[in-house]
């Protein structure tokens, strides 16, 4: 086992710090694409949590594994739609800075 | 407690994740942010390998590191100059955001460290591809055929939606 000797809390602390790095980016960034990157960081840290709980607490079950599989699929769909919207916004306003995009009405 | 190869590997991946995720949200060049995000996702795949979830690690590498990051880099190239630099964040905003994030992190970490987690005593199940495929398409109690089909429809809808939204409008 590759995780022998490593406590579960170590994994959880790493994913927590990653989550709050994502929160910091979400609060400070002004560019839509970097905001999307922060959201990806947050989603990824949640995935780590699901897999760690599955492996350490319920190694006889598969729920966490499949939950994070579906989260990855949803993250891919979300990124595709978000980037389509961002490109459309860029065509309209010639910028993707959230402070300059003040009128989303078509 | 002696230091084993596992500890070194975990330390390496954890350090990579922490350093590069902070750099992702603080660097002022957008393409570098995407590169650091890629490194974070690769290190996360390493953590999945350490947890013995080889399939999830493969999915993470191909879908996240291979798919989403490439999508993000393409959209960066379509919407900004490569050498574009952001102006620095105002000190007030970065100070208060950092305060909120650090307070949240401290709260969560103390809760995690104080909680006593109860593991089951059942024997661990080895997850191989056959088991994953069977459970994804089985209609039994532990089957996932309904979410699997729903997510197929969702992906189709997202694909059509992305094409319709990003399509150039005809000038009339």
Q: Care to give the gist of this entry?
A:
The complex is a heterodimer of chains A (106) and B (172). Chain A is mainly α and 106 residues long.
Features:
heterodimer, A: about 110 residues, mainly alpha, Helix Hairpins, about 75% helix, B: about 170 residues, Four Helix Bundle (Hemerythrin (Met), subunit A), 6 helices, extended
Task: Indicate the percent of residues in helices of chain A.
Answer: over 70%
Beta-strand level of the residues of chain A, as a percent range? under 5%
Proportion of residues in extended strands of chain B: under 5%
Taking the sheet with the most strands of chain B, its summary is: none
What's the SSE blueprint?
The complex is a heterodimer of chains A (106) and B (172).
Chain A: H1 8-28, H2 32-57, H3 63-93
Chain B: H1 5-26, H2 30-50, H3 54-79, H4 91-114, H5 129-136, H6 145-166
Helix pairs in contact in B: 1-2, 2-3
Please provide a written account of the structure:
The complex is a heterodimer of chains A (106) and B (172). By secondary structure, chain A is mostly helical. Chain A has one domain (8-93): Helix Hairpins, CATH 1.10.287. Chain A contains three helices and no strands. Chain A has helices at 8-28, 32-57, 63-93. In chain A, helix 1 runs antiparallel to helix 2 and helix 2 packs antiparallel against helix 3. The model of chain A has no long low-confidence stretch (mean pLDDT 89). At the A-B interface, helix 1, helix 2 and helix 3 of A face helix 1, helix 2, helix 3, helix 4 and helix 5 of B.
């Amino acid at each position: 086992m590759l995780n022998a000797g490593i406590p579960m809390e170590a994994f959880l602390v790493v994913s927590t710090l990653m989550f709050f790095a994502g929160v910091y980016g979400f609060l400070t960034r002004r560019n839509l694409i970097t905001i999307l990157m922060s959201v990806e960081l947050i989603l990824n840290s949640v995935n780590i949590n699901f897999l760690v709980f599955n492996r350490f607490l319920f190694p006889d079950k598969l729920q966490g594994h499949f939950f994070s599989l579906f989260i990855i699929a949803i993250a891919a769909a979300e990124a595709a739609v978000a980037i389509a919207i961002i490109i459309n916004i860029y065509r309209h306003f010639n910028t993707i800075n959230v402070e300059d995009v003040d009128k989303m009405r078509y | 407690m002696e230091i084993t190869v596992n500890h070194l590997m975990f330390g390496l991946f954890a350090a990579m994740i922490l350093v590069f995720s902070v750099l992702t949200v603080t660097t002022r060049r957008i393409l570098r942010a995407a590169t650091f995000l890629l490194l974070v996702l690769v290190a996360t795949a390493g953590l999945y390998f350490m947890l013995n979830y080889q399939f999830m690690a493969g999915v993470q590498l191909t879908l996240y590191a291979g798919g989403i990051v490439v999508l993000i880099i393409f959209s960066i190239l379509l919407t900004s100059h490569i050498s574009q630099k952001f102006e620095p964040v105002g000190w007030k905003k970065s100070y208060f955001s950092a305060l909120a994030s650090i307070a949240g992190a401290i709260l969560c970490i103390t809760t995690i460290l104080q909680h006593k987690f109860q593991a089951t005593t059942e024997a661990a199940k080895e997850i191989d591809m056959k088991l994953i495929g069977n459970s994804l398409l089985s209609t039994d109690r532990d089957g996932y055929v309904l979410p699997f089909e729903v997510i197929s429809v969702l992906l189709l809808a997202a694909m059509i939606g992305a094409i319709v939204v990003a399509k150039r409008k005809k000038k009339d």
